[in-house]
Amino acid sequence: MLSQKTRYAIRAMQHLADHYGQHTVPLAEIAQAQNIPPKFLTVILSELTRFGIVESQRGKDGGYRLSIPPIDITYGDLIRVMRGSLALVPCASRFAHEKCKNCLEEHECRTRALMLQVRDRTADLLDAVRLSDPIPLGDITGPFEERE
What we know:
This protein is mostly helical.
């Protein structure tokens, strides 16, 4: 599951994408519009600033803005920045791989083989959807799949 921190980061980034190219957005505006505790949002935006995705501006017209266009930011990027990996188990992670404790050898583990497929399909979807893409609400099959 995505952590609350990651979900808040995605919502904050969506808000900033909606205002891309307009002006800096005050922290209080993002917090109120996205129902995110301001202190937690400060921590999240600081992390995103360190990763170079967000810029902050101090002063009277201060606030936050995206440092790169929303078309250049995928949901996969955001989740990797906040979570470190898209994998559900450590042995299926590309960038944070760890051998699972109390498990079979990796080449014998069918669970790992399945989780590698889940990771790859999840990455394919999340890396195909950009922060600039509209995401329709209410469609349980998702915005990029056809109904069967």
